[in-house]
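It is worth pausing here to work through a concrete case rather than discussing structure prediction in the abstract. The textbook approach is simple: state the sequence, then state the predicted structure, then interpret. We follow exactly that order.
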Amino acid sequence: MARVKRSVNARKKRRTTLDRASGYRGQRSRLYRKAKEQVTHSMVYNYKDRKKRKGNFRRLWIQRINAACRAEGMTYNRFMQGLRLAEVEVDRRMLAELAVSEPAAFASLVDTAKKALPEDVNAPAAK
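Step two, the predicted structure:
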């Protein structure tokens, strides 16, 4: 059987894994087997959390918009409905940014939404 010479590749692979695990605690940063397991889990968490980040930011934007709307005497739900009826197409990210940095501009959007809503809360919107 032919001799297989791959010690350089094996060392490089192990070194790469240990480098990736360099910030971990205890054996997970020093022993190859433990480090390999932790790096694999870390990559799984990384993938899942990149997906979760989008929902987390959306949730944060909605909370900020809701707080700013309530300061103006309106709920988030009615505000978004009013913007839809007024055909204002501004996404939640920009609305949250306006609510934090430009309260006057956000207040004008709230007024626009209030004007677009029907007077009777339970009445269907007139088109």
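Step three, interpretation. The helical segments are 7-20, 32-71, 76-85, 92-101, 103-116. The mean pLDDT is 93.
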